Amino acid sequence: MRPDPDTLAWASAAVRHLARTTNLLIAARRFRIIGGDPRDAAALDALLTALGARAAAADERIDHLWCLGTPEQSATAVQSAIAVPAADQPRGHTLVVIDAGRHQPAVDEDAFGPVTPVRPGVLGVPMTSDDVSLVSTGREPEDDPAAEARLRWARRAMPVSRAVAAELRDQGLLRGTRIGVAMVLEPKTAVLSLLLREAGAEVVVYAHADETDDAVAAVLRRTGLPVFADSSATLDEQKALALAMLDTRPHVLLDDGAHVIRLAHQERPDLLPTMVGAAEETTSGLTALRVLADRGQLGIPVVAVNDARTKTFFDNRYGTGQSTVFAVLDLVDALPSGTHTVRPGGSAVVVGYGHVGEGVALVLRALGFHVTVAETDPVRALQARFAGHAVAPLIEAVRDADLVMSATGVADTITVEVLRACAADAVVAVAGGVDQEIAIDAALATGAERVVVGRKAERFTFPGAEHGVLVLDDGGCINITAAEGNPIEIMDLSFAVQLGAVRMLLERGDELDRAVVPVDPAVDDATARAALAAFGSRAEPPVPVAAQPADRQPDVRTTRFGAPA
Length: 565
What we know:
- With about 575 residues, this protein is of the alpha/beta class.
- It contains 19 helices and 22 strands.
- An 8-stranded mixed beta sheet has the order 16-15-14-17-18-21-20-19, with helices on one face. It has a 7-stranded mixed beta sheet with strand order 2-1-3-4-7-6-5, sandwiched between helices. A 7-stranded parallel beta sheet has the order 10-9-8-11-12-13-22, with helices on both faces.
- Helix 1 (about 5-20) crosses helix 11 and helix 2 packs antiparallel against helix 12.
- The longest helix has 25 residues, at about 310-335.
């Protein structure tokens, strides 16, 4: 039985609070629920399971301990959790204790001894060698950037990237190499930049204005890294900052969207012969680079980090799925009553059913939405149908939808005609991430009026229309522009692949074509095995492939009808 709407809304808000406060992943984590109303516990269990988490067995370590009952029950449960033998427990594991008491606190913070803030909204309890962190869903985090604390928290939850960077450091491969990092500037990217420097590289950093956390930028500057980023920079100033970063003459560029790679080709072509190559981690960025390559205009090898299995299968689906949907619903919950129709059990449209669209649809359905997928590729549309979603043309699907999320990474996906067709007070947001994925400029050109209705939310009303639609954050990639990006564990995987791409470029850059090149499969394998260990799982050992003697071909005759003559 589905929980009632109020219980589903409570469970959704509690899970989103944990994710927002910690920037941690829900999928792949082992949880336990303690106490509370059985109906509340059942609703929370169902939601966590649908999001990819798993209830821990009695003898397993726990990642997330959800406390719904009394403080006494919670204290006993914490003691039991940290007493479980830690044979599969990776170094640095943190037990996150969540006070999710629905009507009153379920955790007595004073019962655990001294606590210290480890990041806004999270308290650390150094009670054992395995740290315990406390999160209360009934208390909003203090409004404090606390950038140093957020960097320490992110670094702790990035064991795979730390391990790869340590190998690069020990091998001395990065010494004398200048690496330009052109990505969303938040704690996880800052940790990547510092890991690269610790491994021996010179590092310079650039970020677009709407992707810059100034407090994080200030921390990097205090460590001595050159940072070319300012959240208040105009478009011209951003270009000047990007060019200034390029003028430091980096040997390798790590990009997100390929904007700086393309800028180097347009404005600084003289740098290309001195560059080893670049790595790109988005679908939209690789699309543009492949066009350049097809035209014979790509001047450096670019490693397609986005296409690595340990990036696409996890970052795009689980990371972007969780972070974009949660960011949208957090913004919607903060809007004045009556400005929208989004609610648990309502309807949602996902536009595009690639890896990102799959993840968005999965999370929306877990949160109780009835999902319809609009997809122009018939094979992907069929996949959506087999996954249990309704499928319909976009212009029809939006007529009754409370929420529309674009996940294509293609400009003008949400056209003026689609905006006009949307239901009254529907919410429209982007989980992809290219300019004008929602055709805002075209809408304004037709005379649409835009009025701010809340934080990062505007109502667009067209001439002669009786109702308007709400567009979130000017159509920006919502998990970046309105939240803290993908969960830390997800970016740990993606950044480990980035580090593997750096290794590829430095070891074999001279051999690589001036084209978009795939990630070495060994990078995927090593990243996945390290991540499995970090999650407390053991993989099957690799099976060696028996070599055939050079003078002997394998016997391909069938034995289905008896021994071959």
